[in-house]
Design a protein that fits this description.
alpha+beta, 5-stranded antiparallel beta sheet, 4-stranded antiparallel beta sheet
Length: 317
């Protein structure tokens, strides 16, 4: 069975690499012998989707192209799947090994390990062990959101997606049609930056508020993708990193240490409460809600109203 699957994957890869135009599922089924033996269309579709995902996991860049008549086709361009010779010194290998350790608690652990094996096969020096360098450091980035992996693949493959998203001040989720750009981690939370087709503008989505499955759409991006630095700045701004004014809050004594670290002024009020002046930027209301009854917003009035709206939405379930 393993040999048969490997042969099927090889034949599919050769078809995708050898074509100059996108091939439809029908054409691929006629070109790969194992697909002709599929018992039904449903069986073929399941087999093809698994094979396509397996090839992508192996590093093959497969493009999904929609023709003018709406038919979906697939191809793997040779220039997108050709790598120059790889040379790494000991320091570079150590950095890659450290990056791979970051994902040990996430579903990317296997992919990170496999990537290092591919680098070794491509010329990583045999006397360099990327896992041994800086072994005293054990970084971790936990990824618990089910939406992370499909969104990561969609960002990589430049595939638009659809998902249901619940805003912090909304009682029910609503569908979003997004061209995903990049995933960024900020303050322990993962965010997706992309182009919201329904609103015609860039938006940032917190992964923990995505409900249900992330569905891919077979079409191309309609908006230009900014460089990675701009995307990071966008996420930081939406998540509350940039502040242009101050807010005044009451904080329960002994609570809210992240807020205390950001405070520009702290005054003891007595009775177990402190008064803090903190930078006020986009996203501060969502952050304050996370501290529940330990925080009371004093001013400005619009921030207090936003926090109250979010708490009411949470209370409604």
């Amino acid at each position: 069975m393993a040999i048969a699957k490997a042969e099927r994957l090889m034949n599919l890869a050769l078809c995708l690499l050898g074509t100059r135009r996108p091939l439809s599922k029908r054409e691929l089924r006629e070109s790969v012998e194992a697909y002709l033996e599929a018992a039904s269309d449903d069986s073929f579709n399941r087999m093809f989707e698994r094979d396509k995902d397996d090839l992508r996991e192996l590093g093959l860049v497969i493009e999904t192209v929609e023709s003018l008549d709406g038919e979906i086709g697939y191809l793997a361009r040779r220039d997108s799947n050709r790598l120059p010779p790889i040379t790494l010194d000991a320091e570079e290998a150590a950095a890659l090994g450290l990056a791979a350790k970051v994902w040990q608690q996430a579903r990317l652990a296997g992919a990170a390990s496999g990537a290092l094996q591919k680098l070794r096969a491509a010329g990583l020096p045999e006397d360099v062990d990327p896992y041994e360098a800086h072994s005293a450091l054990e970084p971790r980035i936990p990824v618990h959101e089910a939406a992370f992996e499909p969104l990561m693949l969609a960002c990589r493959d430049r595939r638009p997606v659809v998902f249901d998203y619940r805003k912090a001040n909304a009682a029910q989720p609503e569908p979003r049609h997004v061209e995903p750009w990049a995933l960024e981690c900020w303050r322990g939370h993962w965010y997706l930056a992309g182009f919201d087709r329904d609103r015609g503008a860039e938006r940032v989505f917190r992964l923990s508020r995505i409900t249900g499955k992330v569905r891919s759409r077979g079409s191309r991006f309609g908006a230009p993708v900014p460089d990675v630095v701009t995307v990071r700045e966008t996420v930081a701004s939406w998540a509350g990193e940039t502040a242009d004014r101050s807010a005044l809050i009451r904080l329960r004594a002994g609570a809210g240490y992240p807020l205390r670290a950001k405070a520009t002024g702290v005054r003891e009020l007595g009775d177990g409460w402190d008064e803090l002046e903190i930078p006020y930027g986009h996203g501060l209301d969502a952050w304050l809600v996370e501290f529940g009854p330990d925080v009371v917003v004093l001013e400005p009035a619009e921030l207090r109203a936003d926090v109250v709206d979010r708490l009411r939405a949470v209370a409604k379930g």
